[in-house]
């Protein structure tokens, strides 16, 4: 289970996020009233999908011995329509290397099975409590 802690002081939007071994800063862009010191929460969500996709595809290709796959580039765009309460993610995957069409199609199927993709496309329950 992943455990993350986030803390904010009196500086508007600047949030320190920590795991057991790492830390990052999240902030809003200057255009939204922040200082642009780190990824926005929306960028963090999109980056989780991008990172998971890269890692899942690399792991699969390595298991298959597909050394011809030399690089994987993933871009994710996230947008929200607050009025309609709808969020949209668009993911583009670039597979660099001399791959067959069959390999590419298989990797696309695997990308759609990465753990974060599965989490985002299935029911998510969030339990919240004050401590």
- Give the strand content: 25-35%
Number of domains: 2
Query: What is the name of the CATH architecture of the largest domain?
Result: 2-Layer Sandwich
Compute the average pLDDT.
Answer: 97
Which homologous superfamily in CATH is the superfamily of the largest domain? K homology (KH) domain
Shape: elongated
CATH third-level topology of the largest domain: GMP Synthetase, Chain A, domain 3
User: Distance between the terminal alpha carbons, to the nearest Å?
Assistant: 20 Å
Low-pLDDT runs of 5+ residues are none
Q: What share of residues is helical?
A: 25-40%
Provide the CATH top-level class of the largest domain. Alpha Beta
Number of strands: 5
Main structural class: alpha+beta
Please state how the strands of the largest beta sheet are arranged side by side: 1-2-3
Sheet with the most strands? 3 strands, antiparallel
Helix segment tally: 3
Short description:
With 131 residues, the chain is of the alpha+beta class.
How would you describe this protein?
The structure is a single chain. With 131 residues, the chain is of the alpha+beta class. It folds into two domains: 1-39, no CATH class; 41-121, 2-Layer Sandwich (GMP Synthetase, Chain A, domain 3), CATH 3.30.300. Helices cover 32% and strands 28% of the residues. The protein has three helices and five strands, in the order βββαββαα. The strands form two sheets. It has a three-stranded antiparallel β-sheet, with no helix packed on it. Strand 1 and strand 2 (15-18) form a beta hairpin. The longest helix has 24 residues, at 41-64. The radius of gyration is 18 Å and the shape is elongated.
């Amino acid at each position: 289970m992943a455990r993350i802690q986030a803390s904010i002081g009196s500086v508007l939007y600047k949030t320190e996020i920590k795991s057991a071994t790492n830390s990052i800063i999240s902030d809003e862009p200057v255009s939204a009233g922040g200082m642009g010191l780190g990824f926005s929460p929306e960028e963090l969500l999109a980056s989780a999908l991008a990172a998971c996709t890269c890692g899942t595809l690399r792991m699969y290709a390595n298991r298959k011995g597909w050394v011809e796959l030399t690089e994987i580039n993933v871009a994710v765009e996230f947008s929200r329509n607050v009025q309609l309460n709808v969020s949209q993610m668009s993911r583009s995957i670039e597979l660099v290397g001399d791959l067959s069409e069959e390999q590419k199609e298989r990797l696309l199927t695997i990308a759609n099975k990465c753990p974060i993709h599965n989490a985002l496309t299935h029911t998510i329950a969030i339990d919240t409590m004050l401590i």
